[in-house]
Specification:
- There is one protein chain.
- The protein is mostly helical.
- The protein has one domain: Four Helix Bundle (Hemerythrin (Met), subunit A), CATH 1.20.120.
- The protein has 8 helices and no strands.
- Helix 2 packs parallel to helix 4, helix 4 runs antiparallel to helix 6 and helix 7 runs antiparallel to helix 8.
- The radius of gyration is 21 Å and the shape is globular.
Length: 228
């Protein structure tokens, strides 16, 4: 019965999200998700400038969808899930292709350093899966807080610099190649901020789970009293 109840909660959440789903911000989030395989294709085929353009356009839509939602009062429950999901899928994809690229580097230091990118992937996957788990418990995941926003901005800045000036795949590295030491420092800073952002969400998640448990316990006690 517990499993059925969880799936029912999740289904109810998705049905509720279907209301007022057709908005410009939500369509922009969908476009960002659609852009992901195009980025991978252009990156893998070494058309790095086009890959940069795809991510740049994706970032621009991410910048404006929230403003459009607030300005035109198009904030929706689906948007609160779809927007961060698009962010996370994009970040996971970018770090995966970077991990692959650094793994194939002839420089041993860069090859070893590539495992730092797995921190980004694990963090985003954990939050993505965690959001669906919370929804199954009838808990709405928390929107991005300041730590998460700062970490996201720094992530895109650092990954954008790599996409332009990284030693092996920088789109315009023929003008300037980023030194390995600087590259590692910037990625390490971004990874640290990402872990801080992840930790900042934990207290709210724990509090919401406890509140939901207390609510269920209270309902159970009321039902028991009614039976008596």
């Amino acid at each position: 019965m517990g499993k059925i109840s969880k799936f029912s909660n999740l289904e109810a959440q998705f049905e509720d999200m279907g209301k007022d789903a057709w908005t410009i911000p939500n369509l922009l989030s969908v476009l960002r998700i659609i852009a992901i395989p195009f980025f991978v294709y252009f990156f893998v085929t070494k058309r790095y400038l086009i890959a940069v353009a795809v991510i740049f356009i994706s970032g621009i839509t991410d910048l404006f969808d929230g403003k459009i939602a607030r300005h035109f009062n198009q904030i929706s429950k689906l948007g609160k899930l779809l927007d961060p999901a698009a962010d996370k899928l994009t970040e996971i994809t970018v770090t995966l292709v970077y991990f692959r690229e650094f793994q194939e580097s002839e420089d041993k230091a860069l090859k070893l350093f590539s495992y730092v990118f797995l921190l980004f992937i694990l963090k985003e996957l954990s939050m993505l899966i965690g959001s669906f788990v919370l929804l199954s418990m009838d808990i709405v995941p928390q929107a991005a807080i300041i730590y998460g926003k700062v970490a996201t901005v720094v992530f895109y800045l650092v990954m954008g610099l790599l996409m332009l000036f990284a030693p092996s795949f920088g789109a315009i590295s023929n003008f300037w190649i980023m030194p390995h030491e600087l590259l590692m420092i910037l990625v390490a800073i971004s990874a640290t901020l990402t872990l801080v952002a992840f930790a900042s969400y934990i207290p709210d998640v724990v509090a919401k789970i406890k509140a939901k448990k207390n609510e269920k316990d209270s309902d159970t006690n009321i039902e028991t009293e009614e039976i008596k």
